[in-house]
Amino acid sequence: MSYQHLLEQLDLGFTQLSNRVLMGSMHTGLEEEKGGFEKLAAFYAERAKGGVGLIVTGGISPNFRGRLAPDACQLSFPWQVSKHRKITQAVHRYDTKICMQILHAGRYGYHPFSQAPSKIKAPISPFKPSAMSSRQVRGTIKDYANCAALAKKAGYDGVEVMGSEGYLINQFLCERTNHRSDEWGGEFNQRAQFAVQIVKAIRAKVGSDFIIIFRLSMLDLVDKGSSWDEVVALAKWLEEAGVSIINTGIGWHEARIPTIATSVPRAAFAWVTERLKGEVKVPLIATNRINTPEVAEKVIASGQADMVSMARPFLADADFVAKAEANTPELINTCIGCNQACLDHTFSRKRSTCLVNPRACYETEINFASASTNKKLAVVGAGPAGMAFSLYARERGHQVVLFEAKGEVGGQFNLARRIPGKEEFDETIRYFTTQMERNQVELRLNTPFTPEMVAAEGFDEVIVATGVTPRKLSIDGFSGPNVYSYQEVLEGRAVLGNKVALIGAGGIGFDMAHYLCEHGQSSTLDLAQWQAQWGIDPSYQQRGGLTEPKGSAHRPIEVHMLQRKTTKPGKGLGKTTGWIHRSVVKQHGVKTHVGVSYTKFDEQGLHYQQDGEDKLLAVDSVVLCAGQESNRELMDSLSQSGVPVHLIGGADVAAEVDAKRAIRQAAELAMEM
Prior knowledge:
By secondary structure, this protein is an alpha/beta fold. It is built from 22 helices and 27 strands.
């Protein structure tokens, strides 16, 4: 497929972009680490080398009170310029432009010094902000302009003004958070002046030959958000004020509608960018869940936008654009939207990285240089850990033979991809399969590994990546008919009734609830159905683009989820995606039971105790979702082989199905081998 629209140059008049691809803003955590800017320089330089046209950095505050956290990065003083120059110099070795994002957290600041238009606490921060005085508002506008001027001095080609996602500028725009009665509150034209004056002040300070991107919240997805008419009016005022490009912002962080998780349809919000086309003349950027060159090309070719923004796809693969230019999209390591190593890390104050690419943000620490001694390695198990290790070890020059007892690769990913909303996991299997073939990893399917093969084939070391097996429970009736493991259900080997009890309310239990209730009707593959499920109105009749959610279409099945713990079901789910899973389960009417102890399962149903009381659930099937156990039988039999044996992935730790840890462990072992 040709990607001529995606790869076409974009002329901004005073400068040109080499293509229509923007690497969107991501806070990595390196901004605050000791020596982090050297690592950031390597991170961005690798993406520039990979061909991206324009990079936007993670958010940098224009002053102290605007910081996301007390130790977060800001650019306010000349002495702070030099560390930023390390980034711009590294990027400018290639034909790539880079803009620094200016972000004032407002009431999202996670510290007691935060300020906002009004003294209204955000639901996602424990701190109530103070209300800015008129003088402080004007001072903050000057701080934005000063920050932009310092960014120009540091060598940035421009700045992106963060005006969406519920941060300070967005807070001024909406009556939801702006209760002021002075010139910065009241009617929309007054509430919008903060944004407009910031852009005017920046343009006056930096001159005409500097890119100003404004991240405009086109769809707030919260009550008392902006109306469509207000979005259009602000876009026109911003254009008059001097912006070069308008980027699309979707949803406040406190919105209860998913916007970037893997269950969100691809390019789910390109329609709102398209709606603004024709209203302004500056280029418009579409964003959110654009993760393949095919999708990106379609967005631009169809006229929905002039550029596309992709953030996490550049964590997954720094060479995304170069591979598109070479017309080899099958070699792209596709972002699966899991959030596990990126956003979950960010909101846990950890360095961001990527589940499918552990080198992301570790470019100076994780590399696969040629080995001094090449070895013949047997890798047993073609799940995520086994496939990743095989590829990384082969990259170092080792001879690798990958054994898989089943007829397909993928391991637990082959189960995960069957869950509605997790169809993207197919992409990771495709990537590793293609890359292993291309890099001459010898793959032997339907071939169980035996200890005798070590000597017979002359293997120097064995890597055991045999994964996990579902945990069995020794409870009366649980070994009989109508009791199945989650694996048997997902592999189509179970015959379930219409009343099902799920034993376990962790990640597997929630996945199984989704699967049973939505089997064959994944809204991720149907944009209109997904919009109706979550209450998004593409006709934009109400403020924030909201309408009454209709919930998920589901099978007529009664599902109960039980757990021994007394904590809230799903407590251990992903920090940024757990609420989505809990919402979907609630939409389906799944009943949860906590603090239970199981007695038996018979023809009457599931017998259990709760709060000292005997109870009965009249279910006809039970699915065991109570965790896994490491599959280590081979490890024990290899102990006498005389060669080093290594455990990775689920075979090493089975506390939870954790592909992030498995793939990273594979990378670290391959480096050491």
